[in-house]
Amino acid sequence: MEIRLVSPLPLAFVAAAYIIWRLLWIILRHYTSSLRYLRGPRPRSWLLGNLTEIYDNQEWVEQYGDTLKFRGILGSDALFTIDTKALNHILNNTACYRRPEIARSGISDFMGKGLLLAEGNCHINPAFGPAQIREFTEIFLLKSKELAQLWGLKCKEPGDPVCVDVVSGLSKMTLDVIGLAGFDYAFNSLDVHGKPNELNEAFDTVFRSGMAGASLFRLLKLLFPPLGCLPVSGTKEVRNAYRIMHNIGERLIGEKRETALHAKSLQDHRQRDLLTLLIQGNTDPSIPESERLTDEEILAREFLVAGHETTSNVTAWALYSLSIERHIQTRLREECLAIPTDYPTMDDLNDLPYLDSVVRETLRLHPPLNSTMREATKEDIIPLSKPYVDVYGRLHDYVQVDKGCMVQIPMLAVNRSKAIWGEDALEFRPERWAMVPEAAQKVPGTWSNMMTFLGGPRACIGYRFSLVEMKALIFTLIRTLEFELAVPKDDVVRQNASIQRPILRSALDKGSQLPMLIKHVQEI
Predict the structure, then answer these.
(1) Which H or E run includes 413?
(2) How far apart (Å, rounded) are the C-alpha atoms in residues 29 and 40?
(3) Disulfide check for 148: which of 100, 389, 460, 480 has CB 3.0–4.6 Å away?
(4) Residue numbers belonging to the annotated binding site for heme
């Protein structure tokens, strides 16, 4: 039998034709865009538009107003707005505004297809309700205490502070928490004498790979999917890590499903992890087959990232703010020390008013995510509370968007808007929560008049988990230790990435870190 090899010439022709078609399509959309009359920043690059400066978008608002356009890949127009009426319209019209395919593909590459990618009602699950989160408070406090003791042991001499990187410790603590509360799995990240953990190492490999997600190749691969066939450095290591995560995840799901089938009640603590609750809820006969989660969605690797990475970084920013505003740290400590136990209930934590205000102010000023994107699935008219002025000087109280139009939802810019929060919007002032500004009451957030957890049907499902975990962490650490910055405050900046990590201006090559001087409270 004769075997004919396909000539590479036709394949090259097809690839070139595809690329040319994509380029022409993008260029045509630019000149026919419904956003072409909006003002906005000039693109810095013909290839990446304004994407290299997208995380510094607060400057755009100051120059162009609340509603503007910016350029994406190859100059494509995209909408940017902090107008609360517009955001309310976008976030509550989930059929019209969905997460863009580019973003969905990027998240899927990094984390798999799970709860963050699940559209519709399948993500609304009682596993994330207040009653379930109350059960996890003990885990939050135990791991917080373990971290405080670990740091406390470093203070060898009385009254002599020691320098620690709080980002590293908080990251290990929150990973341990999401392992136990999420999957009943012990990562043992805080155990200095523990043996290497296979899942921990696999997760670390995938996470480090995902942080390089803004690379030019990744953007081009999302724009031109055939490029995904090309080998890239680190692919073998990452694929092996995914294989380990998948195998362990499948085993965990199998064990939890077997437990769920034989469980007569949920009173056993071992049956209270999120994975078990998701599986039990997913087998409820009242749930239509079309709304049931797949095993991959149940495992939800991105919940591991969201629950671990975002909480640790926000808590790091809380310690940063408290170390600068020492009088706030002192007042908070006095409130926390008034509680006669190291292990309060969730209700006890929620009843501490100043702790609550500190957490709210931290999440307002330092949201874990800078922004997110939505894509219009059809033509639409977005109403505005504040009209914009177009390039011809005309006023408009609405924005018309085309099908496929990208819309940026800038959580950080909304949370720090002086028009919404007042002239002191950039200051860390927990007292502002005693009287929320009228303009802030119109912010369509799912929690506390801020955009940190988004709003509408697609709001963050794990916000209660993060809130209680963060309160438990701060409560425990502030009762035990005093915190002071080990570097000048101006040296600490936000990493130019989607997740707002603290990083040192003087050591950008060393990645996220936040050195602090700590000592025992009784040594003050």
Answers:
(1) helix 411-415
(2) 17
(3) 480
(4) 460
Q: Is the pLDDT of residue 61 over 80?
A: yes
DSSP letter assigned to residue 306:
I
Which amino acid is it at 229? C
Place of tokens 């205000």: 357
| Residue 465 to residue 463: CA distance in whole angstroms | 5
Q: Which tokens belong to 108?
A: 């899927």
What was the pLDDT predicted at 221? 57
463-478 burial code (b ≥16 CB/10 A, e <16): bbbbbbbbbbbbbbbb
Sequence-ordered list of residues with C-beta below 8 angstroms from that of 29, at least 6 positions apart, any chain: 76, 77, 402, 404
CA distance 520 to 155: 8
CB 471 within 8 A of CB 387: no
Q: Which residues contact 517 (CB under 8 A, 6 or more apart)?
A: 161, 162, 163, 483, 484, 485, 486
Dist. CA 297–CA 270, nearest whole Å = 22
Q: What is d(CA 29, CA 71) in angstroms, rounded to the nearest whole number?
A: 12
Helices (H), 73-188: 84-92, 101-111, 130-153, 166-183
Give residue 381's Cα distance to chain centre.
Answer: 29
Write down the pLDDT at residue 26: 65
pLDDT score of 49 more than 90: no
Per-residue pLDDT at 245: 80
Closest CA relative to residue 293, chosen from 305, 303, 279, 306: 279
Which residues participate in the annotated binding site?
A: 460
**Which residue type sits at 405?**
C
Q: What is the DSSP letter of 41?
A: P
Rounded distance between C-alpha atoms, residue 418 and residue 436, angstroms: 13
Domains of the chain: 1-111+372-409 (no CATH), 112-371+410-520 (1.10.630.10)
Q: How many CA atoms lie within 13 A of 512 on its CB side?
A: 23
Per-residue pLDDT band for 7 (boundaries 50, 70, 90) equals low
Q: Rounded to whole angstroms, how far apart are CA atoms 176 and 150?
A: 14
CA 25/CA 247 separation, integer angstroms: 41
How do residues 360-416 score in pLDDT, each as one tens digit?
A: 999 999 998 888 899 999 999 999 999 999 999 999 999 999 999 999 999 999 999
Condensed to tens digits (0 to 9), the pLDDT of residues 92-128 reads 999 999 988 665 554 444 444 444 434 444 444 566 7
Could you tell me which residues are beta bridge partners of residue 481? 520
Handedness of CA 103, 105, 109, 111 (dihedral sign): positive
Highest mean pLDDT among 24-33, 286-295, 460-469: 460-469
pTM: 0.86
Lowest mean pLDDT among 16-20, 75-79, 154-158, 222-226: 222-226
CA 371, CA 410: separation in Å to the nearest integer? 4
The answer to whether the Cα torsion of 423, 84, 67, 407 is positive or negative is positive
